[in-house]
Structure prediction request, 216 residues.
Amino acid sequence: MTGRLPPSASVATPITGVKMHAPAAMRNAAALTGMLVQHAPETGLALELASGTGQHIVSFARQMPGLIWHPTEIARDRMASIDAYAVESGLENIRAAQMLDATKPGWSETRNGFSLTVVINLLHLISTPATCTVIAETAQALAPGGTFVIYGPFRRDGTLTSEGDSRFDADLRRADPAIGYKNDADIDSWLKEAGLADITRLEMPANNLAFVARRA
Prediction:
């Protein structure tokens, strides 16, 4: 799913057993959960793409108990971490982590009917064609009226708006010229091209953005 990444990207370290800890997930979990509580449907199936360590999905499932959460990943060590966090939480609305590369066309043919799909801190780590595939497949995976939420760092009007973002984007592009920060206007266009509507852009902490869109 991801290209070559610098050490500063997608950081997670082992802690207890198979559990892994991502500092970024710990920092943004509360803000993300609060945002989702406001915009997510109350019931239905929820899909998280590239779930990472599992720290996020436990927070989501605890605060949104009416949703049945389906985590996905491409790395087996992270899948094991997700399941470990889920078991430790005791929550009954988290399903076992499933292997899924969301950048490959066609996955929505076997995974669909979701009331909510969430993708967090992924799009800057993949290419533009891969990003378009994620968005197009997600649109098809949503149930009618379903909600798609994207979160991460983005360019505003083509511009990087902080020194930290400029450094990180440069690190990403040195590691792989095909990846890096996507532009906010492009995300809006790609969501519309995929047939999604009612697009809302939300300012988030640490200079991040969230996009909320719905399938008609």
